[in-house]
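#structure-requests
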Amino acid sequence: MKAVVMAGGEGTRLRPMTASMPKPLLPVANRPIMEHVLRLLKRHGLTETVVTVQFLASLVRNYFGDGEELGMELTYANEEKPLGTAGSVKNAEEALRDDAFLVISGDALTDFDLTELVSFHRERGALVTVCLTRVPNPLEFGITIVDEEGKVERFLEKPTWGQVFSDTVNTGIYVMEPEVFDYVDPDVPVDWSGDVFPQLMKEGKPIYGYVAEGYWEDVGTHESYAQAQADVLEGKVEVDIDGFEISPGVWVAEGAEVSPDAVLRGPLYIGDYAKVEAGTEIREHTVVGSNVVIKSGAFLHRTVVHDNVYIGQQANLRGCVVGRNTDVMRAARIEDSAVIGDECLIGEESVVQGNVRVYPFKTVEAGAFVNTSVIWESRGQAHLFGARGVSGILNVEITPELAVRLAGAYATTLKKGSTVTTARDHSRGARALKRAIISALQASAIDVRDLENAPLPVARQQTARGSAGGIMIRTTQGLPDNVDIMFFDERGADLSQAAQRKLDRVYTRQEYRRAFPGEIGDLRFPASVFDSYTGSLLRAVNTEGIAESGLKVVVDASNGSSGLVLPSLLGRLGVDALTINPGLDEARPTETADIRRSGLVRLGEIVASARAAFGVRFDPVGERLSLVDEHGRIVEDHRALLVMLDLVAAERRSGRIALPVTTTRIAEQVAAYHGTQVEWTTTSPDDLTRVGREDDTVFGGDGNGGFVIPEASSVFDGTAAFVRLLGLVARTRLTLSQIDARIPQAHVLRKSVTTPWAVKGSVMRRVVEAAGDRDVDTTDGVRIVESDGRWVMVLPDPAEAVTHLWAEGPDDTSAQELLDEWTDVVDGLGD
């Protein structure tokens, strides 16, 4: 006997899950519903099966193929238009003419004894046998009455409560003889219950009803979908679960990586190659799909997570469904009965209320509160670029596919035959992405100079030596799971805002240039890169007095790429240096704030015990520098900026100092004391770089360990800052603590407030209105200066749904009061 599996329905009640996936492919316990149906057929010997398909038919065909993997023989009957339950089977008549056949829905979960059903059909000599079951609520099903022999006496399709005369309903499973096709017209919509069966009964044909024992759930609504998952986990339905029961009710599939410090309260299921980090709590009736990543602190309860989903730290999911390839970011919350479609982005700290439907390819902004369904809005980021290039979670937001498209877009903005310099940090993720980027550049008629693993300042310098631009891939500072793809202009500086917008347009429109076969770009690996960098640096920066000073310093390379240039540099400087952590560590391509702090503490201990003049600690890519004074005390970044400023200004006695507007105004006092002038810039690194290129600029910095030494480079360069500091200390013969002690203390506090994109404009208007007649500076964002000299700055983040605030006062208490006052304004609570 053959079987017919009806898999053509659109499943409109299950949208948005079925907006991009046919209903039979919806996973139950991480297997498509239809796969459970096919496995049931196979258990009962029904291995030759015809599948009727219509809606998204190719997806069903591609998934199941010819059935070989299941040990079955599958063929397909495609409907050009919906033909109804009977019309779709009529469409497969040619394959079913030889013998009786069984019809079953591809989207109902059951473990009925089909062998008994077929035996009943044959014993009764029936033309049609309808498989029946009893349900508590028959309103959504066809009610059927049978006599003592099982012969059908009456049908009623989807009754009202006033019409209910039985709890025995039609399951849509039938055994039929080929003669039934004589009652079905071809190529027109025809239904079994509404059209064919009434006609057969009218003619007195033998139609029987078999009341089956066992489990059956028509997975037609979100509620029944969730119930089906729970019933499988509870063992109420006999289906194959792909995995190992590691404890009662806790199923884990092959290759899944579950931390022993994760809390698992079954029954639950974790799919193959999923990763569950420590501190996660997964509770009953939760199904986690294949290749899902669940970060520490996340909480899931009665939640169904489809394949390839990323769930960020502290995310909270309760009673919801999350579609394939969706990213749920840090601290997002999805409430009971909410459904998130495929390939969505749920932003940080956003809330999706219960019963909300978010359709595929949509973005919920960070901090948003969503209480109505998101159906028509398009997906898209407001800005491709963030503060440091294009950033995101590796293999979640930043994938090799995205890297290829980005590189193709960047190449399209350049002339054919141009040269681009590429580099990376020492992480495996950056290495993999760089290879993808190089291929895309070459395929777009761009020659590539690959520096492989190199410090960021070296990559910038080499880019400026004849390249049209450069690309650096690095692990995001402080975020080990994230990566930055940084784009440089021909000077090795970050792309200007205009250049970023141009690249953004090309990327968005997907207008990528492709090379003809003879135009494929070349790939070269330049030699002696580090020696070249060191030589040019020492020629540019004043090193007078260093060799004669007898200074002893401790240098921490933090197991990063800065260690690649230090041996050559320190040897040529002639300074007594102790280098620690010089080797590359692939497991540590960046540092969290805690690791950085502990590293500085350790550096301070070594400096104090060695009686060194000071200690420096490079970040892993050699861009930024942290300081420890001669007593081993950490010089905080904002103080290090003032110390360097004081030293440079005291030596130069003229020129301009480039600083972002968020810097303490103490810097202005220090600069003026030594006859220099502060040039305030925006917080954008490319603006600081712009001022750094001007002839009379003598120094720049951002207060976060980034220093601009204009004679060497107009961009942040930790190594250049180190060499400059060595020369300054050697010539002044002052210690860092002496310099720090003569600079007044600053009191600048910072806070970030979640602000949805849609209200950022109104927030800034409210800030300007609240400023009244106070002095207002709009160099970047809005800076309001009080009559007593205190100031507050309000700046919308260009890449996230956040507004940043800074406030400075004569002491921390005064600064905090000002910060709180303007936080209320931003939140809409103040004047």
